[in-house]
Structure to design on (146 residues):
């Protein structure tokens, strides 16, 4: 079973509720333009970067995300790079990884569990919504994720 690396950009449309697993790659995600169309998104990252980016054809439009659950390990990075972004729920478990928001990001319900080697860099209004989960507590495994 031979693995090949590609440095090409590909677009993949994934049904809601599917788990997206990324290892040693970059994933760019755009939100919905209508807040009523949002759903559940789940990610597992290993040495990868996840960017919440602007729509290529409508860069100034507000983007909406429903419930987003992310497990990031081994120096992965999660970045709010879109200028207009809004989450209903964002739950992250960071193991030696980084979460970075921007001053424009909005999160209604925000939960983070991070180990000692993780970094959380919050600059926007998200900081006020942050709920820090003790590292001894089980977290994403116990959340109800369909």
């Amino acid at each position: 079973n031979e693995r090949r690396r590609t440095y090409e950009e590909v677009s993949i449309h994934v049904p809601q509720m599917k788990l997206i697993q990324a290892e040693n790659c970059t994933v760019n995600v755009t939100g919905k333009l209508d807040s009523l169309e949002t759903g559940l998104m789940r990610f597992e990252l290993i040495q990868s970067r996840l960017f919440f980016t602007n729509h290529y054809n409508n860069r100034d439009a507000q983007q909406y995300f429903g419930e987003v659950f992310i497990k990031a390990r081994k120096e992965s990075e999660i970045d709010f790079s879109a200028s207009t972004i809004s989450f209903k729920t964002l739950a992250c478990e960071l193991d030696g990884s980084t979460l970075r928001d921007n001053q424009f990001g909005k999160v209604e319900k925000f939960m983070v569990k991070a180990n000692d080697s993780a970094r959380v860099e919050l600059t926007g209004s998200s900081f006020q919504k942050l709920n820090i989960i003790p590292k001894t507590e089980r977290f994403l495994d116990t959340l109800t994720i369909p």
Q: What stands out?
A: The two ends are 32 Å apart (CA to CA). The helical segments are 126-129. The longest strand covers residues 63-73. The mean pLDDT is 82.
